Amino acid sequence: MNSNKNCQWRIARRPSGNVVHEDFEYHENEIPKIENGQILLKTLYLNLAPVMRMYMSGKSIAGEAALNIGDVIHGRGVGEVIESNHSDYKVGDIIQGQMGWQTYKATSVTNSEKFRKVPDAGVPYSIGLSLFGMTGFSAYFGFFSSGKPKKEDTVVISGAAGGVGSIVVQLAKTLGCKVIGVAGGVEKCGFLEDLGCDIALDYKTGDIASKIKEVTPNGIDLYFDNVGGEILSACLDNLAQNSRIVLCGSISEYISVEPYGLTNYTNLRKTNSTMQGFFIYNHMDDLDEAEKKLKNWVSSGAVKPIEYIFDGFLSMPDALASLYNGKNYGVALCRVSPGPYDL
Amino acid sequence: MNSNKNCQWRIARRPSGNVVHEDFEYHENEIPKIENGQILLKTLYLNLAPVMRMYMSGKSIAGEAALNIGDVIHGRGVGEVIESNHSDYKVGDIIQGQMGWQTYKATSVTNSEKFRKVPDAGVPYSIGLSLFGMTGFSAYFGFFSSGKPKKEDTVVISGAAGGVGSIVVQLAKTLGCKVIGVAGGVEKCGFLEDLGCDIALDYKTGDIASKIKEVTPNGIDLYFDNVGGEILSACLDNLAQNSRIVLCGSISEYISVEPYGLTNYTNLRKTNSTMQGFFIYNHMDDLDEAEKKLKNWVSSGAVKPIEYIFDGFLSMPDALASLYNGKNYGVALCRVSPGPYDL
Fold this sequence. Notes:
The structure is a homodimer.
Chain A: E1 5-11, E2 24-30, E3 39-48, H1 52-56, E4 76-84, E5 94-98, E6 104-107, E7 116-117, H2 134-146, E8 154-158, H3 163-175, E9 178-183, H4 186-195, E10 199-202, H5 208-215, E11 220-225, H6 229-236, E12 239-247, H7 251-255, H8 267-270, E13 274-277, H9 287-300, E14 307-311, H10 316-323, E15 331-335
Parallel strand pairs in A: 8-9, 8-11, 9-10, 11-12, 12-13, 14-15
Antiparallel strand pairs in A: 1-2, 3-4, 3-6, 3-15, 4-5, 5-7
Helix pairs in contact in A: 2-3, 2-9, 5-6
């Protein structure tokens, strides 16, 4: 790999099942020249997320264009401005937005790329992909705006050790809720307890529906759903009156072929409850507010970024494949080139 | 049938499939004597509703006690006070509440019976079971509180020719929405057009999912669900951004054995939409407000009660059985004894 080249990962073919090496194609090109009004970004960190397999499958998701074979794979990243012909950006600025799987990017900074500056919080700027990125903002708005939590609520969070989930756990504890985290495996449950969960449930051993019922004798007031399917159904069976379900993600659906048939949605009626879809791109005008609040919590130590870091641009395909095995914690990202505060 | 007796319909056995004659038992008893603090009611009208089959099956629903074989069947009704030892009620008052399937009732007027006076609107007091009863109140709060409608909304209503549905149709037209009513059969669709629906869709002929898609090119802003299952699924496939689904009823479930598996609930996430359960018993403190508004609309002619009237107490079992055939319009009720304004 040549650091004087723009290195790229492109789509070699459509994935079938989990992604494998043959689905990716590695390229090295000249570093692009910038034109008037453009900036040149050097990639510091790239996000890794389950949705990327759907990009590779040619689906248009979250406002991103559908990709063809041979295209650079979509991915948000954090980059450093190393040249600038744009009045709003100067060399040394750190910004996050649509970088794609590549080590350099020249851009006029368009709306669709959703670039924004990453604030200095005295920690590595990878935080622009975790707490101060779409992951943190999803947790913030999903929990507070859609979830309408109250201090005394019993909150269940699935995918609790994941990127959004691990932040929601901390936000809910900051508010004072009783927090039940659901994750797969003993290690992740240990991680959740360290993170502050009152109870951590392992969905991989025993009957998760019975476990959820057992630990919520007064019902669930807020279920923050990152997985869909069976755990959603189990929570629907244990709702308190006037409860809220926030549908934030359903990683299980990115791979499974048969969608899950939810038969007990009528429990929403019996409990006067609400199930609400959540989509961060409907909150883009309010991100500054979320960032400010999150920054305060980071400063006070109440909330910390949980990042699972893969090292080196060449590791991207393997890193993505590993996400579907469910072994990682927090936000998965790749450190392409170390930035300020990085060891 | 002896009008000097208290005539009753009781449960003879648990129904299997639709109700049949053998499930009911007819009794004649002495008219009860009232004690201190009690009133004696003479039944004028009794409600008929699909949920009654579930009462007969022994299920405890909507706060009503589970019934045993031999018990008088639950049912809300309108009655006239013909004797009173209770300071809040005088002879001649017309009240609605839990009467049971019988022609007289002595009661201390308990909270669980949810009795309230029926206002005089210059129309028969059967309106205490339609517009000024739980049906009208369900339509009012389900549409306005849960549905959060806006003037420019495209509103789809299933079971639109039914008790709650036919009122929601009128409320939505009063607000100025584009209203699409779904019902079974050509006759009901004609009724819906007369009632003010912009479009009436017959789910019994052709593919209802395609029809719904065709008439909602800009998506559905509000879906008021009275049936669940397939039509709910079709609406989930055609949601506009930030839309609302109100789950008010699911008559299809009262009879069908296998609950419907909803696979596309994840569309709530893609459209930032909400699916909310609705249950009238969570709004009992606000009924006066609803009644006042509904009374104004009745006076101005903007909203009218839609009642499907069976005549005579002896017709109750057949009347209930006929509900599941889906032939009736509006609120089904039985005129047990004509009251004021009745012809």
